[in-house]
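Researcher: Next sequence.
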Amino acid sequence: MRRIFLISILSFNLILSCSEGIKVDVLIENGTIYNGTGNSPFKGSVAIKGEKIIYVGSPKSFQATTRIDATNQAVAPGFINMLSWGVETLIEDGKSQSDIRQGVTLEVFGEGMSWGPLNEEMKVDLLKKQGDIQYEIPWNTLGEYLQFLEDKGVSTNVASFIGATTLRINAVGYEDREPNPKELKLMTDLVHQGMKEGALGIGSSLIYAPAFYSSTKELIEICKVAAQYDGMYISHMRSEGNKILESVDELMTIAKEAGIRSEIYHLKQSGKKNWGKLDAVIQKIDSARTAGLYITTDMYNYTAGATGLDASMPPWVQEGGLDKWIERLKKPSIKKRVIKEMQKDTDEWENLMRAAESAEKLILVGFKNDSLKYLTGKTLDEVSKIRGKSPEETAIDLVIQDGSRVGTVYFLMSEENVKRQIKLPYMSFGSDAGSMATEGVFLKSSTHPRAFGNFARLLGKYVRDEKVISLEEAIYKLSGFPASNLKIKNRGTLKINNYADVVVFDPKSIQDFATFENPMQYATGINHVFVNGSHVLKNGDHTGVLAGKFVKGPGYQKNIFN
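Model: Next structure:
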């Protein structure tokens, strides 16, 4: 026994002495290492060579080009933004400032709409709808779009689900009807293509037209294809309010019938009368998981959501797309009918104006038309009083005048439920926002504070200050858990041979500053961020490095682009 012990000591000393001669690019030493598994942290070092991690463990010496003293700092895997709307903001500015400064190293797109596959008509429509950010569209497929971002240069890694809405527009357009067999085959063929290109699965957003017109059967059929590639179905469900329980049932039906792992986007209970339904939602999810269904959730850490004024108007008036919607709203008889329906609390569609209960709880944050930008930051109630009209009529007029859905923040949720959801063992996190900067074109509009504070808010407010969950659990839910959930290889944990997506931050000072009144304020406390081994954030400042890559899903086939 003594001999074995001596051999072990000699072997350890030999490894230690050999390591002193190993040259590495980066050595992060003296830090408290949270490896992304949820296990207890330990004091140690992380060594990076090229794009990969080559050592994680107890303190050890290396010959390092860059040495970072992480004393009193947490060293963690890069964070995964499970719901990013950086699809356009990263084209404008690939630095991804608002997310990098929170430790995000992977942006995941695809809530209903994805920036591929696009046919020529869709490309024309997308060009027409562009607002402050203008860009050309040289790609057609989703894989080509993600490769376009990598080639153009982004600081974060990027990945995407295939948007179920995008598939439907490809085949059916904006009509309220079932796809015929030929159209459904086109949709499933596009899923095959997207999954082979590296998509993560299917993402839906069912409260909005034309996704609202999709049947459960249609969703099952496209999800069956994604399941063949071990993809996931992730959904903004048909209701997060009055019919949330029925919508959870629908998601579980899709998961079971398609044989696919499934996740609920930004779990919430919209509207005060629905806040008490969280217990029933959790019971349904827990029962399904016990029965063998793989169901998970994600969320953002605020009591307000953000979308458009379309979420306050009935889906029937939006059939045919934006132009048809506006054309109908201009007709006095239809406008009168829409106003009447907007004023009703209904189970037939998701009426967020009624869920918020008051126009004072709707903040207008995104206008396309420069002549209306002076209204940015005002509530719908304030604008309606300025105009001397009802909130409903004002909302209709703004959509017509702006030629857009008009970006809007809705206060819908309870703080108590936010905290309860953070504790769920199957919860991860997404900003549901773009990644932007506090300069340039981004200052032309406002946003939800989640764009600048979602991840820092979790680690500062809810972990450090309110102790809702431990730091190791929070980091696991930001890294290792979503990476394994998405079946992404060699990312999400601090492990030898994994890609070096690494964050060094101060748990005592990490803080979000973004507010609803002034959302464009960077978080602080993140000191260093490495993406694929490259130093993107150094001592809290962006280095300008654009090292992000197109991260492929489990169905990726290397020669699909050939």
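Model: The radius of gyration is 24 Å. The first strand starts at residue 23 and ends at 33.
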